[in-house]
Design goal:
It is a single chain. Helix 4 runs antiparallel to helix 6, helix 4 packs antiparallel against helix 8 and helix 6 runs antiparallel to helix 7. Helix content is about 80%, strand content about 0%. The two termini are about 25 Å apart. The longest helix is centred in the middle third of the chain and has 34 residues. The protein is built from twelve helices and no strands. It has one domain. The protein has about 250 residues and is mainly alpha-helical. It is globular, with a radius of gyration of 19 Å.
């Protein structure tokens, strides 16, 4: 508990988490407002439409998470931390836990805020949370944010430099997984197993309920969440192993 408190204090004494949280919520909620106002009056929006901006929110959350590690390497405070707590794995797990919990809260605020705005703008449409799939589509955003933050902490630990870590994360999240589909023959098959595509499968539910424009995956809805969580845990374990073997 002491390590968690220390990591919480270190995180919240800087401005970047507050700005990142605000931007993530603003993007997610703002896109819901755009979707609700841009559609013609004859068309209806769905619960999934209100969450159209969550992918941009994920990108911002990963920036927040990566900076929580790389900033310490930049200013050398990570050395003091590792001297105070020689077990580096405990430090990184505590940091990942604190950042993941914060990301979970931000994700839930953003997702339910986006849904509420869509419902307020188009109250006559089918935006009410009536089924378990609707609830997962909204409440699951925070869970995906949390595991995405763990991935970003792991990448930040491996790379240690803010510019490199942020560039890699943003390029991967916003471009790489989509571009993989362009590889002849094997591209679509590889894309099915890309972690953020699989996370979208968790949020979207069955293929029939997601519609033609949403990603495919070979796993079930809850299996997709387990896969995404497993990727995050494995990457964090690799990062811890690397951190133990090299100088801070």
């Amino acid at each position: 508990m002491t390590l968690l408190a220390v990591e919480r204090i270190k995180l919240f004494t800087t401005r970047s988490p507050w700005w990142c949280a605000l931007i993530a919520v603003a993007l997610t909620v703002g896109f819901a407002g755009l979707m609700a106002t841009a559609l013609p009056s004859g068309e209806t929006i769905s619960v999934a439409n209100t969450q159209a901006g969550h992918q941009f929110g994920i990108a911002v959350i990963m920036v927040l998470a990566a900076l929580s590690v790389t900033t310490e390497y930049r200013f050398g405070t990570i050395r003091t931390t590792f001297q105070a707590v020689p077990h580096r794995g405990s430090v990184l797990v505590a940091k990942a836990t604190v950042v993941a919990l914060l990301s979970l809260v931000i994700g839930e605020i953003a997702a339910f805020g986006a849904w509420a705005l869509g419902y307020a703008i188009r109250p006559s449409d089918s935006v009410a949370l009536q089924t378990s799939a609707d609830w997962i589509n909204v409440a699951g955003v925070g869970v995906v944010f949390a595991f995405a933050a763990v991935i970003a902490v792991a990448v930040g630990t491996l790379i240690r430099h803010s510019a490199g870590a942020l560039s890699l994360l943003l390029i991967y999240v916003l471009a790489v997984e989509s571009l993989v589909q362009l590889i002849p023959t094997v591209g679509p098959k590889i894309h099915q197993w890309m972690p953020f595509n699989v996370a979208e499968r968790f949020l979207g539910g069955s293929a029939s309920s997601r519609g033609p424009g949403l990603p495919d995956a070979v796993l079930s809805q809850w299996g997709s969440l387990a896969y995404f969580a497993g990727v995050a845990v494995v990457l964090l374990a690799i990062a811890i192993g690397v951190a133990k073997k090299r100088d801070a």
